[in-house]
Amino acid sequence: MSPSKILPALPLLVAGTIATPAMAASVTITIPQIKVAEYHRPYVAGWVEPVAGGNARTIFVWYDVKKAGREPGTKWLADLRTWWRKGGSSMKMPADGLTGATRAPGSYTVAIPANLPAGQYVLKVEAARETGGRELVSVPFSVPAKGGTASGKTELGTITIR
Amino acid sequence: MRFRTIMIAAAVSSALATPALAHRMWLLPSTTTLAGTNEYVTVDAAVSNDLFYPDHMPMDPAQVSVWAPDGSEGKLENASKGRYRGTFDVAINKPGTWKIGMNRSSIGGTFKVGTEEWRVGGRGRPAGPPGAPGAGGPGAGGPGAGGPGGAGGQPPRMVATVADIPANATAIKLSESQTSYAIYVSSDAPTKGVLTPTGKGLEFDPITHPDALVSDEEAQFRFLIDGKPAAGVKVTVIPGGKKYREAEDAQELTTGADGVLRIKWPVAGMYWMSASAEDNKPSDKRAQTRRMSFTSTLEVVAP
Lengths: 162, 303
Prior knowledge:
The complex is a heterodimer. Chain A is mainly β. Chain A has a single domain (13-161), classed as Immunoglobulin-like, CATH 2.60.40. Chain A is 6% helix and 35% strand. The N and C termini of chain A lie far apart (30 Å). By secondary structure, chain B is an all-beta fold. Chain B has 2 domains: 4-105 and 176-301, Sandwich (Immunoglobulin-like); 115-167, no CATH class. Helices cover 2% and strands 44% of the residues of chain B. In chain B, the strands form 3 sheets. In chain B, strands 1, 3, 6, 9, 10, 11, 12, 14, 17, 18, 20 and 21 form a 12-stranded mixed sheet that branches. In chain B, strands 2, 4, 5, 7 and 8 form a 5-stranded antiparallel sheet that branches. The two termini of chain B are 34 Å apart. Classes of the chains: A mainly beta, B mainly beta.
């Protein structure tokens, strides 16, 4: 996977296009440092599911956007197996405002769509790493804004909705 | 869908036709879920007792057909038959759900000539007393050459096909056997085109898509006979990898009044699922009964 040009501390340019100014809710995702001989940045997807049922809405997908050829970066999107089943498999990649390159370890903030109807939701973040593990973290939240936080154990760090 | 009518002499066929025996035929795809239309699935094909451990007989890939999501015929590539295992690749080059497998139909049974019982088709039964030719050949030694109880004195007790039943046969009992095996592989979003029922025989009409199975979610599969929901269909569900645990851990399930089977998965993994039913509505009027089976290999992912 090619190194991202985006530094961890900077706002996400791609995801930023769906952000509404000021008061919109956002989620901060932490990708942990993992000390292994062969490290590849994880593929990570985040989506919102209404608790009452209904379609999942993808809010970001980080994958190897640049890799083309015989084995394009999209090949491993299905490794984000829950996201893939919840709607990823029917998305056209890359998707404007949703997809971006894989991220190095660090914390990243992504806007949550401002036009979610009031109600209870679960934000899910799934990470899958080449030659590594896979993890799914759920963070319940509600609209109007009531945040939440949860932590992964292996492939994801703290996920906080504000 | 094509129904291939073949002679039931092959050992593979006999394993399919008699689910009570332990030998199981199976197809094992390398995956059931792919991203993009640039990928291949590679499939193992074999007959063995334990799933999915090839240690008995290969299955000939030549028996296998491929249905693309748009209904067109797909292609087997790199087919080979090894000592224990057949193998082939399929280019999954269109989005949607593909079907890989086979449909077969055959007639077998028994009849009498005088007091002696004869069989139609081979079911692993010895061809006859010493001096009889090899299994099921309609040639020398069959009814055409001397006839049952004929001059030879030691006729074989088997004919190959229904067409070989002699005119003086009595007590003819014939059963139609319809077997199908299908695995499903999806590129991008799963579709249901290849799952459209034909209204003939026992069919798989899943409510939960077979390429969207998760170990913590109950799967619901409807079964149809001649297009109508089929209650009381017996279904065996076995997780692969028996070598690595104490027991086979088979689930013996039955469809409900609505024809729907509800499956809970004890673990994630590849499963072998085989449904069977019998009735007295054969499509071939020469038969009195019909035995039907549908078998699949299903991939169940962890949540």
